[in-house]
Amino acid sequence: MRLNAYLARAGVASRRGADELIKAGRVTVNGEQGELNTFVGAGDRVELDGRPLEPQALAYVLLHKPAGVVTTARDPQGRPTVVGLVNHPARVVPVGRLDADTTGALLLTNDGPLAHRLAHPRYGVEKVYEADVQGEPPEEALERLRAGIELDDGPTAPAEARRLGPGRVELTLHEGRKHQVKRMLAAVGHPVMRLHRSRYAGLTLEGLEPGAWRELEPSELDQLRTM
Fold first, then answer.
1. Which residues are catalytic?
2. What Å distances lie between residue 49 and 25, 29, 155, 195, CA to CA?
3. CB 3.0–4.6 Å: which of 6, 159, 169, 209 could bond 40 by disulfide?
4. Which is nearest to 9 in space by CA: 59, 60, 55, 53?
């Protein structure tokens, strides 16, 4: 794997932070100074400031993200972060983002290749959202959502849409643009008042209170890897 990914797996920094460590000359591989394009293979010896490093075991965590928590590792404004909520011995980072006021299912991991595949639009990972909206969306509005909405950054893919109750809609998407659910519902005249992601890539929040997290089961991990 690339050296910055190895450092991230060892839990010493993010990939961007690892690049800075490498450029500062603080990382060696088999006694030679590491470069940004250095690859680390099995049996290679990696050291940071002369201290040997070992990659952490891969970890996969499902968090029930509460409102008011940002989907980052650190926040310049001092707001609580999802990484701060997950007290895990491995350094895990979120896959994709949820807005600070959005609640629900969020996956965190240190498995970079899997995280990349899940976040890439080509793979069409399923995301299910429950939205409390202003007004009562008629069937015509739901049909527009199902057909795809023209947004300022282009048309969305068709979504699954159904009414859950008065002023409540469920949307199932297979793409993940910024603020997409909010923009889609605003475009049909029903702005979102509260948004919750109930399912991500088949993972549900059953048994998890807001702010709680758990390790993925082996069967769930198998499902992600074969998705």
1. 99
2. 9, 11, 50, 45
3. 6
4. 55
pLDDT digits (tens, 9 = 90+) for 103-153: 999 999 988 889 888 988 778 899 999 999 999 999 999 999 999 999 999
14 Cβ neighbours under 8 A, 6+ residues apart:
8, 73, 93
Q: Which residues contact 55 (CB under 8 A, 6 or more apart)?
A: 6, 9, 10
What are 52's strand-pairing partners? 47
Say if CB 155 and CB 223 are below 8 A apart.
no
Kindly list the structural domains of the chain, giving each domain's residue range(s) and its CATH number in brackets, ordered by start.
3-52 (3.10.290.10), 60-121+203-225 (3.30.70.580), 126-200 (3.30.70.1560)
The pair of structure tokens assigned to 138 is: 């008629």
Asked if 106 contacts 62 with a C-beta cutoff of 8 angstroms, the reply is yes
Give the model confidence (pLDDT) of 8-63 as tens digits.
888 788 888 899 999 999 999 999 999 999 999 888 999 999 999 987 888 999 99
